[in-house]
Amino acid sequence: MGFRIKKQRVYELLFMACILVPYFNIYEATFFTWSVVVLITLRKKYSLTIVKQLACFSAILLIAFIVCLFDFPKPFDFAKDIAYMLKPILGLLIGYQLCKEYFDNPFIIILRTGIVLAVFHMLNIAYAFTFLHIRDMPTLRMHTGYFSDFEVYAIIILIFRKQLGLEISYKKVKLFLPLLIFSTALYLARSNFIQFAILYVAMKGYFVADRRSLTILALSVIILGGGYTAIYYSNPSRTRGAEAFFYKIKNAPKEAFKTHVNKYNWKDLNDNYRSYETIMTYKQVTDEGPATIAFGKGLGSKTDLRTKMWLQTSFMRFIPFLHNGFTTVFLKSGLAGVILLLVSILLLFKNKPFDNSVITNINLIIVGTGVYLFVSYWVFLGFYFIVDTKAVIFGFLVRYRENIARAVTNRMQ
To answer: Which stretches are transmembrane (predicted)?
Structure first.
């Protein structure tokens, strides 16, 4: 028993390391850490559920690899794209391989990791506010982080702890939940608020098509519509304090869907940059003919923005990855890749029912993740984003669900 406990702690630390390292926004460190962990935790057997996901992302990478053989990309661009497009595969394997059968309750590992992230984030904000004298939202987010999907999952797990079989004292809940909520709110990320709403609705079972669910969803749409209308007509400031966040909410519906952006108008370009990326990529891929539309431009390909743009750390004109995950896959692997990406999302909605309440609620989280991925891929690359950890969480949940099902089946025999 002593050996098992010691081994569990090792896997917990490996899991925590794999979640924490992407937050430093150095993909070389993430790729190295994730690759090493995958190699040292390889399994002999994998379930059909995880194999299907791995097959989708492997096929997207394979298409991009085959296409690039006809174009001879620069070695550095080729290697960089392989590393980036391997990220979902590595994440799925890490989550699946690190969730062991003898863990007391894997959800506590997610919770502990979320708490560490929240504490780190709060200390980072305190440092930026006190010593760097940062007061405006864009600069604060640049120094302390743009979003944290992982902390939202930790919040959901705490709120629905009873349904998920997580045993934790109410005293700890009163301490941890406000910390996680406050930390997540301070990212000022629209996507995190959307993520929480989707996962919460999913855990309530409102994505199941019945009269009650449709009524609640309709009321939610009305309430959200009313809130957005109030924000829109309040005409919030682009740069002033909390108003800047509301300005981003006001601009959200058209930011990623606008069909024309004037690159010579800095406000239009800044507000609708995601749309501009998509427009330029679509034009450049479709201009090369049906074969490129079907299979993309391959590894090492880039979108020409036609003008140099300041993107986080430097001015760039040619970019290999975009904010939009669907458009990025379209650039690398064409419509074939986009279809595979959609299949990988739709597979999340096909969960085999099992007579166990914890499995039922894990299925609800996975369904909520599937719904949220449509948003996540559209605005922030989804599983492909360098600081994203949802692939690890999904692999972890799949394995935990299988462990429970196996344990229940064994007891019944």
So the answer is: 12-40, 46-70, 82-98, 110-134, 176-202, 214-233, 329-349, 361-387
